[in-house]
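Tutorial handout. Part one gives the primary structure; part two gives the three-dimensional structure as tokens.
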Amino acid sequence: MIREFGLIDVMYLIAAARWTLALTATAFIGASLIGIVIAIARILPFAPLRWLAAAYIHIVQGTPLLVWLFVIFFGLPLTGISVNPWIAAALAFSVYGSAFLGEIWRGALVSIAKTQWEAGASLGLSLGEQLRYVIVPQSIRVAIPPTVGFLVQLIKNTSLAAVIGFVELTREGQLTAAGTYKPFAVYITVAAIYFAMCFPLSQWSRSIERKLDVAR
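Part two.
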């Protein structure tokens, strides 16, 4: 039965947006944990570890996110590991995001002048202590704007989770459009909700970049 697109449908879409944000938060945390390891591995003096981290980044960044979703959701059950759409989406986005965050944070770390590293070493600090007390505090101001920018992209990319049946904002939009036969109104509403989630973050990222003035 075809129904009219109304306030109740809008509320369903807004409710589904909470799952979009939940997936984004989960994926960002997972990507951050892996990304930190990748970023540090990329700057260590141990060459094989650097090569391994670089290979990980090239493989993940060179593979479409949709493929990672399919590999995890459809591939893992073939090995006897059953995953639901939520777990599959969180894992896929964590893996995909970690390659980008790892490279963003590596760039922030190596942007710090070599003399800062040498100063830390001259004080007898270990590599870990140099990172903790000297390098990371300075690199944060470089890393924050592109990190927030990537977070905005991650929010929008979660729409791909709809292809494996995870009911986030885009999937709820598909279901609502099918039930109301009002795709234009539905997807305009979906777009407006995405804009409401992403625009403040984009503005915040620009504001942080201006305040930190990382180019100076």
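Part three, for discussion. The CA atoms of residues 128 and 135 lie 10 Å apart. Residues 7-43 form the longest helix (37 residues).
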